[in-house]
Structures are given as C-alpha cells and as structure tokens.
Write a structure and sequence with these properties.
Chain lengths: 358, 313, 301
C-alpha cells in the first residue's frame, strides 16, 4: 500500500485480510498520505448492519472508536475434546483451568502419550494467555500500548503451560507440522483452540481425521474465582474498503453482502460467521451434519466472551511469541522465567513500530 | 581447439579487405569504440543501478518528509534492538558459507573435471545444479519437511545429531549452519559449472608436461590449475560475499515454514525489508542498505585486489 | 581433453587409486546431498497430504493422489498457474534478449578495449551489484511509475535486463580466453573495431553467450521481489510470485486459510516441480555450450 500511496494510484477497492494487525495501520495516515481504509460507521454502512455483528466482533476493526472494516468470521477459542475417548477413560470435562491442569496430571500418569492441548503454535498466547486476562497486549490508542507480563494472571497461565509441558500432555508442537499428525493422531483427548480447528484439524482427512460422532466442544474455561470466563481469539478475516475507491457505494455493498449474506456465510464459508444472524444458521447447519458429538452452543456463547483487554496493534504478537518463547522453551527454560523476556520483546517491537509503551 | 581455422578465415578475410584498410592506430578526435559498446549497458546501469542507488543514498540521509536528517537514520537503525543480533547472524553465516562454498566448489569442480566418462561428468554437473533451480517460494515446503525429524528424508541423520523435533532443529544456535547449508545446496551447482568451464580453459599441454614430470593429481591441482583459476575464484568470492551480506531468502522461507519461530528480521536485509514494508520507513531501510553496502565493499576489496580481478592479463 | 591412460606410469599411479576412491567417495556423498531432497519432492507429488506426513519419505504414492494434486494445482483460481507460467516465459525471454544485446558487447569492451572510464565502470558495476535490492526497489518503482509503466510487462523486463553479473562473466571470459594478439592481428589486417568484435571475438564467444543467457534466464525466472512490487494485479504474476498466492492458501503456512478449498502440501510440491522444469530444460539444453566451449578461447601465447 505504501507504494500505491507514493505512486498516487492503484489501490484496490476492496481488500480481504486475514491478519488482525491490518486495521491498526490502514486506519492511519501514512507518510502524510490519506489513510487507506474508509471509515465505515459514519454512514457508509447502516448502523443496523453494524449492530448485527456479534459482540466484540468488530473490535479488530475499531481504532479510536471508528470502525474501518467488517468482520468476516470469528475465531473464538473454545475447548475441543474427544467425547469418545473422554468417556472411555472415564474423565469428566473440566470446568476451570485448575481442573484442566489436574486432568493433565491424571492423563500423564494413566494414559501417557495422549495430549490435552498443544503449545507450539504462534497463536498459543492467544489461546492461553489471552484467556487468562494476561495484559500483554493492551492497546490503549492508535499508537499506545500497555504491557505487563509479571501479573498473577500471566503467571498462572504460564505456570499451567510449564507443568503440562513437563508431563508431555501439552507439548510444544505446532498443529500444522508433520510431527503433530504423525505422533498424535488418535491421541488428542482435548484441545483448547479456535473455532476453525474443527475444519482445519479435526474434520480434515489430511490432518487428525477424527471420525464423526467423537468431537465435542465445551465452553471456554474460567480460572477459579473469576466471575465469568473469557477467551481469546485467533484470527478471523476482515474486509476493508479503500478510502480512495471511486466506487465507494458498490464496494461497500459488496463487503456488506459477503459478510452478512446467507448464500456466502452460511452455505459456503468454512468459518464461524461474525454476523450474528448468519452465525445462528451456520451453527444449525453444522449441527445437522451429525459430525459433532455435542451441541455447538458453546461456540456461540464463546463468541461474545472474547476478552477486550487484548487489543489489535500493528505488530504481530504471534511473531513475538514464536521467536521469543518457543525457542526459549525448547532450550529448556520455563515460560514463567521467560515472562520478563517476553515483556521486553513486546516493548521493543512496539517501540520500533512507533508505539508509546506504558 | 577451434583456434587454427579461425585465424585462416581471418587472414583470408583481411586480405580481401586490404583495399579499404584503415589507418593504423586511432586518429585523434575519434571516440574510442569502447564507449559505443558499453553505451547500452551504461544506459541500463544508470536507469536501474546508479540512479536508484543515488536515490537510496538520498533517502538514507533524509527524513520521511524530505528534510535533511544527517546521520539520524543511521543512529536509529544501529540502535534498533534487532540490529546487532542481525549483524552477528549475518557474520556467522558468511564465514561458514564462504568457507564451505570456496572449498567445496573448487574441490568438486576439480574432481568432476577429472572424471573421464563424458556422460558421468554431464550427469554429475546436472545433479549438482538441480537444487539451484529451486528458488525461494518453491522450497518453503521442501525445508518444512526436510528439517522435521518425523518426516524428513534425512530423519536418520537428524536423530543421530540428537534432534527430535522441528523446533529443536531450528534452534537459534543452529540457524547459521542451516542457512549456509541451504544456500550451498542451491548455489554450489552453478559455480561448479562455471569453475568446470574455467578448468577446461587451462591448456592441456601444460598439464601433460607436468604429468610427464611425475606430478600427481593433487600437485597438478595445486600448482597449475588453482593459480589459473585465481580470477574465477576471486569472482566467486566477491559474488558470494555480496549475496551473503544480502542474506534474505533462506531465513525468510524458514520463517514462513516455521510460522515465525525463525524471525523475519534475522538478517540485516530482512530488517531493511521490515523497515520498508512493515514500518513504512524507507529512509531507515535505505540506511541499513547503505551500511550493508559499505561493509560488502570493504570486504570484497580484499578479493578484488588479491585476486587481481581488475587486471587485464 | 586427452584421455588419461593408466598403463604407462603405473608406479606413479598406484598412490592415486586411493586418491581416486577418496575422490569418488566425495562425489557420491555430494550427489546424495544434492539429490535426496529432490527425490523426496518427486515422490511427494504422488501422495495425499496425510500420506506425505505419515508414510516413508521414499515411498511412492498413488496415481489418483497425483491426479488430484494436478487438478488442484491447475484448477487453482481458474487456471492461474498456467497463466503465470506464460507470464514468466514472457518476462524471462524478453529480458534475456535485451540482456544479450547489451551485456556481451559491454563485457567485451571492458575486457579488450581501452577507454578512460573502463575501470570506473567496472568498479561501479561491482558496487551496484552489492547494493541490497530492498533499497533499489522503491526508486525503481518510482522511476517506472513516472513513465507510466507500472503494471505492464516492461516494468519487469527492463529492470531485469540490467544484468551486471553477466557483464562481469563476459568481462572475465574475454580477458582470460581471447589472446590479445589475435585482436591485434585483426586490427593490423585492417578490421574496424566493430569488425574485430563481430568477426573475431563473437564467434569465439559462443560459450559465454550461452553462459550469460543461461544465468540470465534462471535469475529472471526465479526473480520474486521485482515482479512482486511492479505488478499489482495477479494476472500479471510470474510463477514465482504466484507461488506465494498458493502458499497463502495453504493452511500449514497461513492457518487462517484452513478450509475445504485450501491448497494441500503435495499440490505445493507439484507447483514447485512445475515451476522449475523450464529451468532444468534450459540447463540440459545449454550444457553442451556451457562447458565444452569455454575451451574455445584456446591457448594463450
């Protein structure tokens, strides 16, 4: 986009982005030039439509109170589990993170080789740390962020990951590597992860290939003492309209159609729609497919439980975690010990991207 | 080999041209023909080499709005928390790679050259070159698998080295070696082909004479072939140095393959790219590039002077 | 090259048997080093993604899997891959033609003629080769934008034709392989400088022309960054840039693309092979010239 800005022409009318970091820069002037993304909530998109999105769905699109993009799909983290295996081993679904950790200890002793999660992906912090209300990414303004990783909230999630990594029930492996598929097919007892894991990993013949009737989903877990559970979000696409577009109305109509129309969102789209009405129908359709062992209601609940204390900045938290924590953990350090390093890494990256860090 | 016929042809042609013979030497005032020959090239060089380079220099010394910035951009990039690690990475990589490249390419070229059967030589050169055809994006997939001990064709080797998972293989300490291996894998073949051709250029009489005198293969290599290859080795050194300081493709594709466990600002060139396209700071990117250029120039000066690259034989 | 016979000097040669086996061992080791990943790649295109992960790296998959991968690749975005390959061919051959016309005379002049700026041009070329392309991208983009070429094939062909590496190769070749006496003789015989070039140097330059053509072809075919910047529309993509489109539809490298339409890993492997085939074909074809000919310069007096 910078090149188009300098050339003064050539911007596409509509852009689909799968990175939640894009609104942060697209909404801002760059180098003195007009911001790329058109503001959508000042009349371009009807307010009724905007209100039809799930609570918090437009958060990645909102900068300084203005909405710059429409959300295509949500990626709320839920608790996936294999109901058949759980029944077979006689385990009950945990209701808190503490119970989850205890379950991990049990699995390690009674059924070694089985896992209840993975912690080797770039979005691991978004599943575990975000859900624990760790204040690692509190975006407070277009160019301001607060980073505090030495809080009890961060430490509790870190310590959970450390314990479960040590007993091999939450290994440091990424779900898209050959290693994961080879070692853990048939051995995944549980997996906290985003909604799109269903199609990407479980119901995918090229990955775990879990047979029908086994996969269940439970609501995100709270920590003991927290009044309600929150969860994290891993991605979810967004649609931008160019502020330079000569066909603003047409572009907007397209974007509105693609995010709300049943013909796309319910019938074709693989992900959980961000638009609430479409989401309801999508869930019904999934239920009717008889693949899942439980109702999909927890996914719907989770959609509105995404914690808003973790923001969407221009820099990628995933990349920071991947290059700081994952190698550190592989070389034997614990995440709890690495928390200060993580903090420094986030601060450094934020600063070079022009953020003031508090 | 084709020398004799050419000069016959030449004299024959020349005799018939004697009538329109030009005066000997160059009359004063006439433009040396060299200029004509290089004119098109100079044009391209200006358009796509020199002017952009000058623009980059200007960028490095100005701010985003165009005001003069003195050394601010340089200070900014040098104090960036990623700068020094990137310098370290590139240096380590360069040392490992250059040594690997120069030594093995020369050895392999010499051996391949000594192979008598023509089909064997051709096949060998083809096989060695094969990986060179694989450019960046094509090989992301390849390295994702080759470096994962659970699925790699060389998993035995990886397990032997105590590496049992992908993240273990791409540990920061292993990266310079991995990148050097990848770069060697893709780059060596081309240079082997060039060196082989250069070896063909060494007169066979001299080699035969040495053999009659009792020299064995190693001595012939050291005393006759290597000195003849001096200019070519120097060129390989310079080019590899240039390419090495600009390390970008290998860490970038491993960064993609590993989903950012290998960072996308591992090398200085990647850092420049981040400045340009993630931080929208072309001035910083230009500053980093200039620093890279100066370093590469200083280092390559060694090769140029010691290899006699610019001498006319 | 005269065949080396082993009979006459057996005593001097006995030592070299072990030398030969060392040499042979080195050759074989390196063959394995270079070839094993390629063999893996070839087998990979016959498997499904799951088979690729769990089965033996050197096992062959099935024909149905191969066809599935083929269809997925060439069906991607309605046949975009075929279009991209065509684009690559256009850009690469166009740049190749211009490069040859420009670089061979330039290298010749730098090596074998005298003019004041000779050394300066050499140094300048070297310097420009050392500048990271990231720094040059923006200025070149702005230049081409000023003349309105952005998005056209020329915006890629012209910068690609600037090939200092080729000029250097030509320079080194001419300065080491063509005896100056030959040229002097031609001049004495009354050839004009242009005739010296076309009648003496050029015929002897077949190998270096092939070499420069080859390297230019490969470098331009594999060039990613330049077309990526200059061509905003994916219709104009060469295959290398198109491959990144494929990559971003592969869940392993772009998790958010996970879904029923996503590109599978073996399809990527097939894409890889398809994208390098032209290079390999060109290599095989030009092998004869590449190496046999560099001798043609003959002996130095």
């Amino acid at each position: 986009m910078q090149l188009f800005d300098r050339a003064g022409k050539g911007w596409p009318d509509v852009v689909f982005s799968s990175q939640n970091t894009d609104a942060a820069w697209a909404s801002q002037k760059s180098g003195g030039k007009q911001a790329f993304a058109a503001v959508l909530d000042k009349g371009l998109v009807p307010q009724k439509t905007l209100d039809g999105f799930a609570t918090g769905a437009l958060n990645p699109c909102t900068v300084d109170g203005q909405v710059y993009c429409l959300r295509n799909d949500l990626a709320q983290a839920v608790l996936w589990y294999n109901k058949s295996l759980m029944d077979q081993f006689g385990y009950s679904i945990p209701t808190t993170w503490e119970e989850y950790e205890a379950l991990g200890q049990k699995v390690a002793t009674e059924h070694p080789g089985y896992i209840i999660g993975t912690a080797g992906d770039a979005w691991t912090p978004e599943v575990f740390m975000w859900a624990s209300k760790c204040e690692a990414n509190n975006i407070t303004g277009p160019k301001a962020v607060t980073v505090k990783t030495d809080t009890p909230e961060c430490k509790r999630a870190a310590s959970l990951l450390d314990t479960l990594r040590k007993n091999d029930t939450v290994p440091v492996v990424s779900v898209f590597t050959p290693e994961f598929v080879k070692k853990y097919t048939g051995k995944v007892l549980m997996m906290p992860g985003p909604a799109w894991y269903a199609g990407a990993i479980f119901n995918n013949p090229q990955s775990l290939n879990v047979p029908a009737g086994q996969l269940g989903v439970a609501a995100p877990l709270p920590w003991k003492g927290d009044d309600k559970a929150v969860t994290g979000n891993v991605g979810g696409g967004t649609w931008f309209v160019s502020s330079h577009s000569k066909n603003l109305k047409a572009a907007e109509k397209f974007v509105q159609y693609v995010t709300t129309a049943d013909a796309y969102q319910v019938d074709v789209a693989p992900g959980y729609p961000a638009y609430a009405a479409a989401a309801k129908k999508w869930v019904a359709k999934q239920d009717a497919s008889k693949y899942y062992a439980t109702s999909l209601q927890p996914i719907v609940t989770a959609a509105s439980q995404i914690w808003d204390g973790w923001g969407y900045g221009i820099f990628s938290q995933e990349a920071i975690w991947a290059k700081t924590i994952t190698p550190g953990v592989t070389s034997g350090k614990s995440i709890v010990d690495l928390l200060p390093t993580w903090q420094t890494a986030i601060e450094n990256q934020a600063k070079v991207d022009g953020y003031t860090v508090k | 080999m084709t020398l004799a016929p050419a000069s016959d042809e030449l004299t024959a042609g020349a005799t018939s041209r004697r009538r329109s013979a030009r005066p000997e030497g160059r009359p004063p005032g006439r433009v040396p023909i060299g200029y004509v020959f290089v004119s098109l090239y100079t044009l391209l060089a200006l358009a796509f080499g020199i002017i952009p380079a000058l623009y980059a220099v200007v960028l490095a010394f100005t701010t985003t709005d165009g005001g003069f910035a003195g050394f601010d951009n340089f200070v900014k990039v040098v104090t960036d928390f990623r700068f020094l690690p990137a310098v370290l990475h590139v240096t380590l990589y360069l040392v490992i790679w250059l040594v690997m490249l120069v030594i093995f390419v020369v050895i392999l070229a010499l051996i391949v050259h000594a192979v008598k059967a023509r089909w064997a030589g051709t096949t060998l050169r083809f096989v060695y070159y094969l990986p060179g055809a694989l450019a960046g994006a094509s090989s992301v997939l390849l390295w994702l698998f080759v470096l994962d001990p659970t699925a790699s064709p060389v998993s035995g080797l990886l397990h032997l080295m105590g590496l049992n998972s992908f993240v273990q293989v791409i540990q920061p300490g292993n990266l310079p070696v991995i990148f050097a291996i990848i770069a060697f894998w893709t780059g060596a073949g081309g240079w082997i082909v060039i060196m082989y051709g250069a070896l063909n250029n060494v007169s066979t009489e001299v080699i035969e004479a040495a053999r009659i005198d009792g020299a064995n293969a190693a001595q012939i290599a050291m005393r006759i072939q290597l000195p003849m290859l001096r200019k070519w080795i120097a060129y390989m050194g310079v080019m590899s140095l240039a390419a090495g300081t600009q390390l970008f493709v290998e860490p970038q594709l491993l960064s993609q393959a590993s989903n950012a466990v290998v960072p996308n600002d591992y090398s200085l060139n990647q850092l420049a790219y981040q400045y340009a396209f993630q931080q929208n700071d072309f001035n910083g990117a230009a500053a980093i590039s200039l620093i890279l250029l100066v370093v590469a120039l200083l280092l390559s000066w060694v090769f140029v002077t010691r290899g006699g690259l610019f001498e006319k034989e | 090259m005269t065949a080396l016979s082993t009979q006459p000097r057996r005593d001097g040669r006995l030592r070299s048997w072990s030398g030969r086996s060392v040499a042979g061992l080195i050759l074989v080791l390196f063959v394995l080093f270079f070839v094993i990943p390629i063999i893996w790649l070839l087998f990979a295109v016959t498997k499904s993604s799951r088979a690729l992960i769990v089965s033996n790296p050197f096992s062959i998959g099935s024909w149905t899997d191969f066809m599935a991968n083929w269809n997925q690749l060439f069906g991607f975005q309605d046949g975009a891959v075929t279009l991209w390959i065509g684009n690559s061919a256009l850009y690469t051959l166009g740049a190749l033609a211009i490069t040859l016309v420009v670089s061979i005379p330039a290298g010749y002049a730098l090596a074998l003629t005298e003019f004041r700026l000779r050394k300066a041009l050499l140094v300048l070329t070297l310097v420009v080769m050392l500048i990271p392309s990231t720094a040059l991208v923006l200025p070149v983009f702005l230049e081409l934008n000023t003349v309105g070429l952005i998005g056209t094939p020329l915006s890629v062909i012209l910068p690609m034709s600037f090939f200092p590496f080729g000029v250097y190769l030509t320079y080194i070749y001419f300065s080491t392989s063509i005896p100056r006496d030959l040229l002097a003789a031609a001049r004495i015989d009354g050839c004009s400088e242009i005739e010296v070039f076309t009648r003496v140097a050029l015929p002897l330059a077949a190998p270096i022309v092939a070499l420069v053509a080859f390297f230019s072809f490969v470098q331009n075919w594999n060039n990613f960054f330049l077309p990526f910047v200059m061509l905003p529309s994916s219709d104009g993509y060469p295959i290398q840039v198109g491959l990144t489109s494929l990559l971003s539809s592969t869940p392993a490298f772009n998790p958010s693309s996970a879904g029923s339409d996503s590109v599978q890993l073996p399809t990527l492997a097939l894409a890889t092979i398809v994208s390098i085939l032209p290079v390999l074909v060109v290599f095989l074809f030009s092998q004869r010239y590449l190496v046999a000919g560099m001798t043609a310069g003959g002996t130095k007096e």
